[in-house]
């Protein structure tokens, strides 16, 4: 009843090509952003901001990065955490070594470092694909973490590569409390998500999808494979790098290379599988799901089962639930939560009528 | 020079263990086209189940602790557990995902990895356990006296087990009815189906055989380094082995394992000191990556041809 596009005529190409062609969608997104930008920082308590909202936003960004590579360009990567590490350490070094480095420029430069490294490790994708490529990205995962630990210059000669993020300051305003850090994260993530959404609708994004669906056919219709695959690697690593920089600066504060391990890479992969492969919206849903699930299990399992279970049981249960959900989603809904969202919207269009 | 040979042989012997894990991968990939990331978790599950039965069986049955009977009963029961795992995997993971792109199946096995790890630890607990197979871990005196090279008898035993296992599998594939059916399925699913080979049974069998290989690999690794979560990482080490050897070749898994094992130990000893050590963690991957660029199908793999 409320959600229906009847009567909304598109009279220009601009109107036809909007991100959200339906008025209700536009209003909804505005309300959503308004809610998260205004209401949440006012009313949410510190724990929610620090432990849930900020990580959800950061992981959403990383998931968008991986989704660009895996979901849109079809190149499976198991090294996203390593690219996050490059972004974090890159931003740290720019802040450290250049006097008066603006924070936002530093994280973008950190992302660019990650993009460069990503292109380097993306080069093999020109000759290999599928599982072989997944193994190649594992090389990136192990090599980058090793290099960040062993080459002490990166961490300014601290022991075992631990870095402590500097104070964030933009135009004289110091970002200290979780509120301001949350808003900063939200701003960066929303901007980059919009950019990503537009990118996947453009020539670049369409050529990624063509390569994903069948690379030989894409080549035949004149898409340059090398450029397409490498831009996918570059953009994806850039997103992961910025996410990594935010992870260090607005979330954890003190990070070590070992923190960006294979487990984190898998977590990001799970986010896009559960959220929806090849969907920007799905990256957000998946990240929220994966961040909230362990917390929910920690809270509810002891509550339901009482003292019967130990904490090790809960952590094992977490593994089982994660694994089970992955298999479940791959079988039942390969397009993830994003697809469920889509179905919900379709249903809403007809509601309250059956047809 | 003696030191070089010691490192080389040590590397080759650890390569045998990588090869054992890689063998499980190859079996499943050949028969079902699934790249089974969960092989490492299966090794962990198998070893943990075996050790767990060794601990609880004397209490249940009143058998003598550490005796021969307990050992074999635990072995048989663990094998049964692996068969159950194979059946469950086929029923709940593979069958619903038939005809999905290989990458989906791969991701499903990553999910399976977590599932199996969680179940294994949920049943048996997460603490590190020692495993004593009753094989002495002492230097062989003959080599010590004549060539002054230090080789552990346990490592030689592991190599012998691997050799026997490979030979047995080769014979099984070559000469039995089931083996022939397996090869037919590996060759062409549809053709195999159309001449009446039951695909599902074959899948269960092949996963069970991979489970058996995982059990043997897990017992040997576990006896060497303790039965612990780190066993699951053996799967990660087996990946470059596969790339080197080719996904579809049993001899490739063995040769690849030997090359990776030897080269990573040699690199650690001779190159490591110049770059700060610890290069074992990534050297096999970079080696495999370099190799991929020259020969994408691996040493013995089938050449991949794309058709539009």
UniProtKB/TrEMBL annotation, chain A:
Residues that span the membrane, as ranges: 27-44, 50-69, 76-95, 101-123, 130-149, 182-200, 230-248, 268-301, 313-332
Membrane-topology descriptor: Multi-pass membrane protein
Top-level taxon in the UniProt lineage: Bacteria
GO cellular component: plasma membrane
The UniProt record lists the keyword Nucleotidyltransferase: no
Compartments where located: Cell membrane
Coiled-coil regions listed in the entry: none
InterPro entries the record matches: ABC_transp_permease, LivM-like
A Pfam family that the UniProt record links to this protein: BPD_transp_2
Single GO MF descriptor: branched-chain amino acid transmembrane transporter activity
Keywords noted in UniProt: Cell membrane, Membrane, Transmembrane, Transmembrane helix
Main location: membrane
Name of protein: Branched-chain amino acid ABC transporter permease
UniProtKB/TrEMBL annotation, chain B:
Family statement drawn from the similarity comment of this UniProt entry: Belongs to the binding-protein-dependent transport system permease family. LivHM subfamily.
A Pfam short name: BPD_transp_2
Membrane topology: Multi-pass membrane protein
Transmembrane intervals: 7-29, 35-57, 69-88, 103-126, 147-173, 202-223, 235-262, 274-294
Domain of life: Bacteria
UniProt keywords, alphabetically: Amino-acid transport, Cell membrane, Membrane, Transmembrane, Transmembrane helix, Transport
Entry's localization field: Cell membrane
GO biological process: amino acid transport
GO MF term set: transmembrane transporter activity
Native source organism of the sequence: Denitromonas halophila
GO cellular component: plasma membrane
Main location: membrane
Name this polypeptide is given: Branched-chain amino acid ABC transporter permease
Keyword GTP-binding: no
